[in-house]
Amino acid sequence: MSNRLSGNEAVAYALKQINPDVMGAFPITPSTEIPEYFAQYVADGEVNTEYVTVESEHSSMSVCIAAQAAGARAVCATSSAGLALMYELLYVAASCRLPIILACVNRALTGPININNDHSDSMGARDSGWIQIYAENNQEAYDNFLMAMPIGETPSVRLPVMTCMDGFITSHAVENIELLETDVVRRFIGEYNPEHYLLKKENPLAVGPYDVSSYYMEHKVLEAEAMKAAKARILEVAAEFEKISGRRYGLFEEYRMEDAELALVLIGSTAGTAKAAVDKLREEGVKAGLVKIRVFRPFPGEELARALAGTKAVAVMDKSEGFSANGGPLFAETRSALYDLKNRPYMINIVYGLGGRDVNTEDIEKVFGRLANIAATGEIGPVYTHMGQRSKEENA
Amino acid sequence: MATNDMVEIRWHGRGGQGAKSACLLLADVAGLAGKFVQGFPEYGPERMGAPITAYNRISEKRCTIHSNIYYPDYVIVVDESLLDSVDVTGGLKEGGAIIINTTLSPQEMRPRLRGWAGKICTIDARRISEEILGKNLPNTPMLAAVVKVSGVLDAERFLVDIEESFKHKFADKPEVIEGNMLTLRKSMAEVLVG
């Protein structure tokens, strides 16, 4: 059915259709509307979720961990500093192999304090053992959330899933959306029947005990293997989802990449803006293309290398700084993934859009202009730069 | 980078005046009419009275662009005092129009618009809303004005669709629907085009 919803409304609606057992609820801009709308569904009796209001995000994630360990389906939503306050618990959730689902509405991580979008919050949690799936728009935010449980809960994976969307740009923008019928969603999600859980009387289980050095590493390797196994499961679930929705998803989306010589790699809502720029450049005869990363964890390195193998110059665009002094996190992954290619394209990194800095089609066209120049001359220039910086004189 | 079959609208208001709500409502109603829509606010520090901006894209094909709007077809000024502090006509297309909530006529407003030579529309949104709704709620009159001036939606269809939308929005206070509908009709009739 067709509707018009913001990204936050879409995720809240997905939650209503899923009817999870437990929600750990604590508000933070711009994710606040998710627990807010969901609270209305709870109050109206449209779901029978145990809605647990807590005093911090550390506690909302703790609620999710306890509930999921007890054999329930648990969900929560957060942004920015809220995700940072969950940091320790993110690792606990992943290492306990609890497939909790978290809606991360991406917002700059302080400081200076800022409520607007970039990816510094979830990128900071990229090594916590959570699967991370990013959305371009409200439709993808809804679809990704529906796919999260079947991915995370499968026995070969058993990992928590973070579905990410851009704060305000996606979370607060009303756009057209196609919603699935609730009975179709419930059949797709299915029942959650974990093999082991805390309160199973036939086989009671301890969750989260101390792990000694002689076993710890084996457990971490199992976790790493689960993350590798998630890649195949994500594609399986996408194929099942296509059957009920008609919408196709992969680990990333290739846009006009068939014969592309100049390509962007980026994540999130800017992909839509970049598609418009690619279309314009294609009309002008420029062989431009775009790869939009949907799944950042597990990182689709081999697949990405194949997708970019025929290009001459690639700009990887990071919406978080990273402070590595060597480029942003998406750049590090992408450049590493391409190392084994026989003919590697030239690669640059552009950090953009921090703290809600707007990016329009003209900004993207300028990036392609730089790539065209690099492809023509072989001169890369500075590898790692920041988009649209004021000059020193303007800053003064 | 608007295509010919896309209308782009920029709203200027102050926090608390309902510019964002009107923007999202326009997106919803245009969607009901079968259009592809975007309605989104631009947030800074959130506080009552601070200048806020909101945007609409209404098109025949889905628009994937997710940037702010720099070259709008229409600009709506919900609070006249913003004319002194915000460059409201910045980027406004030559063939477009600015719609201002004011007691003054379009001719009287022109000197305040920094050389804007295009179409100016005015409406006394405060008076209309106070007369009918008993409160200064300027966003509903401004919404009616932009639909009338832009022609982006068929006016009669718009009134039918928005009544449906109000029935959902005001499910727990249906008594306000009639007043809002009356406000919309009166505003469409009263907007001055200069």
UniProtKB/TrEMBL annotation, chain A:
Keywords: Oxidoreductase, Pyruvate. InterPro entries: PFOR_II, Pyruvate:ferred/Flavod_OxRd, Pyrv_Fd/Flavodoxin_OxRdtase_N, THDP-binding, Transketo_C/PFOR_II. It is an enzyme of class 1 (oxidoreductase). SUPFAM superfamilies: Thiamin diphosphate-binding fold (THDP-binding), TK C-terminal domain-like. Residues 260-364 form the Pyruvate:ferredoxin oxidoreductase core domain. Belongs to the pyruvate:ferredoxin/flavodoxin oxidoreductase family. It comes from Sporotomaculum syntrophicum. This is Pyruvate synthase subunit PorA. Residues 14-237 form the Pyruvate flavodoxin/ferredoxin oxidoreductase pyrimidine binding domain. One of its GO terms (molecular function) is pyruvate synthase activity. One of its GO terms (biological process) is response to oxidative stress. Its EC number is 1.2.7.1.
Automatic annotation (TrEMBL), chain B:
The keyword Methyltransferase does not apply. Coiled coil: none annotated. InterPro entries: Oxidoreductase_gamma_subunit (IPR051626), PorC_KorC (IPR011894), Pyrv/ketoisovalerate_OxRed_cat (IPR019752), Pyrv_flavodox_OxRed_cen (IPR002869). SUPFAM superfamilies: Pyruvate-ferredoxin oxidoreductase, PFOR, domain III. Residues 15-187 form the Pyruvate/ketoisovalerate oxidoreductase catalytic domain. Its EC number is 1.2.7.1. Keywords: Oxidoreductase, Pyruvate. The keyword NADP does not apply. Pfam families: POR. One of its GO terms (molecular function) is pyruvate synthase activity. NCBIfam families: PorC_KorC (TIGR02175). This is Pyruvate synthase subunit PorC. The gene is porC.
